[in-house]
Amino acid sequence: MTDHSNQLLCGLLDRLEPGWLPQEIFHAIARLVVTPTYVVIPQFRRDDRVFVHLCTRASNDPYYASLLNPIGTVLRSTDKSLSAVYQRLLAAELPGAAVRRGPRFVDVAFDMIARGREISLIHWVELAEGAPSHLLFDVAVLPANVVPTDYRRIEVAAAHFRATVAAEEDRR
Question: pTM to 2 decimals?
Answer without folding.
Answer: 0.91
